[in-house]
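Researcher: Sequence recovery benchmark, item below. Answer with residues only.
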């Protein structure tokens, strides 16, 4: 059984990953379907270099994995339950505090 400290570390990593809007867009896109970096960059409107840095962060956090596909690499959520967790978080926050906004904060380095 995991310790409380390891549970906290997992939640902190997940929170840091979600703290950046680009990483959130990536996770939501991958929730819908696995994708290739070039397609993700186009879909969310960022440069491939910037996307690559965010994908590396998400990979290091253990939230996404890669799958070789010929000469290309496909990205997907590391676990299907992450997609459900994203849906649950999104709908819970909206239903609990639909009239509130968070103040902008300086983004922290990931993981």
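Model:
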């Amino acid at each position: 059984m995991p310790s409380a400290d390891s549970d906290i570390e997992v939640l902190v990593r997940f929170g840091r990953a979600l703290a950046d809007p680009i990483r959130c867009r990536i996770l939501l896109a991958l929730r819908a379907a696995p994708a290739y970096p070039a397609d993700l960059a186009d879909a969310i409107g960022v440069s491939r270099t910037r996307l690559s840095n965010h994908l590396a962060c998400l990979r290091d956090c253990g939230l996404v994995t890669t799958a070789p596909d010929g000469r290309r690499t496909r990205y997907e959520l590391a676990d299907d339950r992450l997609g459900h967790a994203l849906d649950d978080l999104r709908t819970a926050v909206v239903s609990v505090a639909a009239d509130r906004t968070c103040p902008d904060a300086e983004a922290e380095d990931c993981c």
